[in-house]
């Protein structure tokens, strides 16, 4: 009988321990974000900043875990074209500028943003400032700083997308959905690769800028969009995500195709206006892409890290195969 009682106590103790071990990970989850371990406790009132970041939450089915989103006025066309437009309509639109006061008013328990995607020392809206307020933050991996000034990007762009999906899957307990999305995206990218021809045209990503162009280096989403679609990013040697270059460098690298970012930047607002500027700018007149009028347009939300990236790769691969092969 003593042995039986002792054995029963062991089972009960083990059972209690097993239950505690099972519930602890659901109470707090630790992931690596921008090279640092970060712990989260069941966020239920998340505020997101920018279109692509918000769509990552929607793609994972996490709209009900959000207190709202912030999107700049020039991004409203992205919402209209979004595969998750219905989610944008259901979740509160909190405004066009994210601030400490805004997230406090929303009673946020986590902010999902990135450097230059909401986080900025100049505004005082930073992960450290949120921590002082008792609010957790998750940083977009595409925008992680890489240790050289304010340069951003610590891994290949698609891996940044998959990393964020897996991390968010763990934080919110939707790991299976995250893996399902990643598998689908990998297949979409692999299918696009079947369209790629041997010749790889040189591509210049034109985001904005008249005096100096704003473009994307090897750490931004356009790098993999261009590369996986069968092109070569003419500024793929730059160790940054998004950055300013000179028109002289564009001329010297003589791109075959210009990929235009469709969003209002306050200068040349529409894709047609951006194209008209490029075609009228005399220093570019002998650049192959301008001379041969090879332009392709993608929406802003497809060119930053977002669940639209794989579809953008497929669309651009079809264009390159038909027009620049």
From TrEMBL:
**What keywords are assigned to this protein?**
Signal
All residue ranges annotated as the Fe/B12 periplasmic-binding domain in the record: 45-325
> Does NADP show up as a keyword for this record?
no
Supply the CDD domains for this chain: TroA_a (cd01148)
* Signal sequence region: 1-18
Classify the source by domain of life: Bacteria
Q: What InterPro entries does UniProt report for this protein, alphabetically?
A: ABC_Transporter_SBP, ABC_transptr_periplasmic_BD
- Annotated family: Belongs to the bacterial solute-binding protein 8 family.
- Protein name (Swiss-Prot/TrEMBL): Iron complex transport system substrate-binding protein
Which organism's genome codes for this protein? Saccharothrix ecbatanensis
């Amino acid at each position: 009988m003593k042995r039986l009682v002792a054995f029963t106590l062991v089972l009960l103790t083990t059972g209690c321990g097993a239950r505690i071990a099972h519930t602890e990970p659901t109470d707090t989850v630790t992931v690596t974000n921008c090279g640092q371990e970060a712990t989260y406790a069941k966020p239920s009132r998340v505020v997101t900043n920018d279109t692509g970041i918000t769509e990552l939450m929607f793609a994972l089915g996490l709209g009900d875990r959000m207190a709202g989103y912030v999107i700049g006025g020039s991004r409203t066309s992205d919402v209209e074209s979004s595969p998750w437009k219905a989610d944008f309509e259901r979740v509160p639109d909190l405004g066009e500028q994210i601030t400490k006061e805004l997230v406090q008013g929303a009673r946020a328990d986590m902010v999902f943003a990135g450097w230059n995607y909401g986080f900025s020392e100049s505004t005082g809206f930073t992960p450290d400032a949120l921590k002082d307020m008792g609010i957790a933050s998750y940083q977009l991996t595409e925008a992680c700083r890489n240790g050289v000034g304010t340069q951003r990007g610590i891994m290949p762009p698609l891996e940044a997308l998959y990393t964020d999906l897996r991390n968010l899957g763990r934080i919110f307990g939707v790991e299976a959905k995250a893996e399902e999305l990643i598998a689908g995206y990998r297949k979409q990218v692999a299918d696009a690769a079947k369209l790629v021809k041997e010749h790889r045209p040189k591509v210049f990503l034109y985001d904005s800028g008249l005096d100096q162009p704003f473009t994307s280096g090897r750490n931004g989403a356009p790098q993999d969009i261009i590369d996986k679609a069968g092109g070569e990013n003419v500024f793929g040697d730059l160790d940054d995500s998004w950055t300013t270059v000179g028109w002289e460098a564009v001329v010297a690298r003589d791109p075959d195709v210009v990929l235009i970012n469709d969003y209002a930047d306050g200068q040349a607002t529409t894709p047609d206006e951006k194209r008209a500027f490029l075609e009228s700018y005399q220093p570019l007149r002998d650049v192959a892409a301008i001379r041969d009028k090879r332009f392709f347009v993608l929406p802003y939300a497809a060119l930053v890290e977002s669940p639209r990236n794989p579809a953008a790769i497929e669309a651009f691969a079809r264009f390159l195969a038909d027009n620049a092969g």
